[in-house]
Amino acid sequence: MIETPRLLLRGWRQADAAPFQEICSDPQVMEYLGEPMTLAETELVVSRMQAMQAQLGYCFWAMEHKETGALMGFCGVKPGAIGTSIDGQLEIGWRMARAWWGAGYASEAAQAVIDWVWANLKVDSIWAITAPANQRSQALMLRLGMVRHRKLDFQHPAMPPGDPLRAHVTYSLNRPSAVPEA
Predict the structure, then answer these.
(1) Which residue, of 8, 55, 126, 164, has the greatest Cβ tally within 10 A?
(2) 14 three-state secondary structure
(3) 73 phi and psi angles, rounded to 5 deg
(4) Which CATH code, of 3.30.230.70, 3.40.50.720, 3.40.50.300, 3.40.630.30, is assigned to 2-174?
């Protein structure tokens, strides 16, 4: 579990499926992610995240508001999707209920995840992808210090040809260099 001043990032529970489905059925939340999800689809996501956590020790963790215990969405890392420009890389991702937007929670969670990665995983970089129109996510990527790689932009294989969400942009953040001792 990762704890920040306002958040807990934790493993998924089966009881998270219904509140997560509420988040994933909001057309504004899903605007750049695809169709709103059913309960059965969110149950599959929860099961996949639980399996990933058990196998790898990380996933897109459930994001919980510390004060209220509310499921806010997710933030974490997973292997980049096969057939994308980040295949074989570590991908950071987030999704949050609209009620929590604009209060710095996504930045707080993502920075905590980045700090966890540098402390716990032997990777040189963290990657992120999104649809070009998703300016909110790209703004967060820039706030985190990520850099865009235009040559690595791609057509996402999970989206059908002609879908406006098929195009994706690619960002990364390199591991900070060790500062030599004075």
Answers:
(1) 126
(2) helix
(3) 145, -140
(4) 3.40.630.30
What pLDDT was estimated at residue 178? 57
Domain definitions of the chain by residue range: 2-174
Q: Find the mean pLDDT for residues 147-164.
A: 93
- Comparing CA positions, the residue from 5, 109, 20, 25 lying closest to residue 70 is 20
pTM (whole model) above 0.85: yes
Placement of tokens 């059925």 in the chain: 25
Burial annotation 105-128 (CB, 10 A radius, 16+ → b, else e): bbebbbbbbbebbeeeeeeeebbb
Q: Are 149 and 126 in contact (CB under 8 A)?
A: no
Cα-trace Rg, the chain? 16
User: Max Cα separation, the chain?
Assistant: 56
- Phi/psi for 124 (5° steps) reads -90, -15
**Whole-number Å distance between alpha carbons of 107 and 123:** 21
Yes or no: say if 124 and 174 are a contact pair by the CB < 8 Å rule: yes
User: Is the Cβ–Cβ distance between 70 and 64 less than 8 Å?
Assistant: yes
Report the interhelical angle of 105-120 vs 135-143 (nearest 10°): 50
Q: How many C-beta atoms lie closer than 10 Å to residue 99's C-beta?
A: 11
